[in-house]
From TrEMBL:
It comes from the Eukaryota. It comes from Pristionchus entomophagus. CDD domains: Lipase_3. This is Fungal lipase-type domain-containing protein. Residues 85-221 form the Fungal lipase-type domain. Pfam families: Lipase_3 (PF01764). The keyword Signal applies.
């Protein structure tokens, strides 16, 4: 009886089995991976920062909405037992903000796995996924069922990473408990239902925001856009050892939501002390 009681006490832990946020993982792995997606030769960043990680496939397509291309890549990192997926952000933040604001006025579209999301993000994600990224990822995961799946991206790449993580978990391509999602400067992707679906599917999901970064504020909440949880908020320059706050509400005034008007493009382009897209294009040197 005592043993059973102990087991029942332990039960809630089994269901809240999210790995807590790790600054070192974000800084040393997810940042270079997000940066690498800005490059047409991501292997250079992998060689420099993730010793032994190997690029599997990079897909780059013209997006409907931006003159920029949309891009993502898969990789295998055997020493850490990780398969990964990283998405490119936009290289023009002002353009992204303008387009996201405009697309916010358009009708949202049904996301294949529940809720409604920005048409702009949905189209970009589905194009990349159906353009070869999805089939490559599924091939890698079928060979390495015991590996953790890392998904990351900065800016627009964060939005695409969010959709990808939900899609993989919803379709049992990989169990939600074995997915680690870390994004940087991610915009709001969809409606309340999408945010709830996302949160129900994933245990380890962190949206990292830097101080007054403008992009997490678009599209605005009055357009019925809501962030998924958990936000990790750095109210500083994100130097090694700098403190951060983890907010568990989807929209939380303790984190970046406290800045509604006084926002910054510079805080968006810089994470963990580097200009993310330049860092990636320069091979993470």
């Amino acid at each position: 009886g005592l043993r059973m009681g102990r087991f029942l006490l332990f039960l809630p832990l089994l269901f809240s089995l999210s790995a807590s946020f790790d600054d070192g993982t974000a800084r040393n792995f997810m940042l270079p991976l997000s940066a690498a997606a800005y490059s047409d030769t991501p292997q250079q960043c992998l060689d420099k920062k993730l010793n032994g990680a190997k690029l599997s496939k990079q897909i780059t397509l013209q997006c409907d909405y931006f003159k920029d291309k949309c891009s993502g890549f898969t990789f295998v990192y055997d020493s850490k037992k990780v398969i990964g997926l990283s998405f490119r952000g936009t290289t023009n933040t002002a353009q992204l903000v303008a387009e996201v604001q405009e697309s916010g006025f358009e009708a949202k579209v049904n996301f294949i796995d529940g809720g409604q999301v920005s048409k702009y993000f949905n189209d970009a994600f589905m194009q990349l996924w159906n353009g070869g990224l999805g089939s490559d990822l599924q091939t890698l995961l079928s060979k390495h069922k015991d590996y953790t799946l890392w998904i990351t991206g900065h800016s627009l790449g964060g939005a695409l990473a969010s959709l990808a993580a939900a899609h993989v978990a919803a379709n049992n391509i990989h169990p939600g408990s074995k997915i680690t999602l870390y994004t940087m400067g991610e915009p709001r992707n969809g409606d309340q239902k999408y945010a709830d679906v996302h949160d129900s599917l994933l245990a380890t999901e962190y949206r990292i925001t830097h101080l007054r970064d403008i992009v997490p504020h678009v599209p605005p909440e009055f357009m019925k856009y809501v962030h998924h949880r958990y936000e990790v908020f750095y109210q500083n320059d994100m130097n090694p050892g700098d403190p951060y706050t983890v907010c568990s509400a989807q929209e939380d005034k303790k984190c970046s939501d406290q800045y509604d008007v006084d926002t910054s493009v510079n805080d968006h382009t810089h994470y963990y002390g580097v200009e993310v897209s330049d860092f990636g294009k320069n091979g993470c040197k």
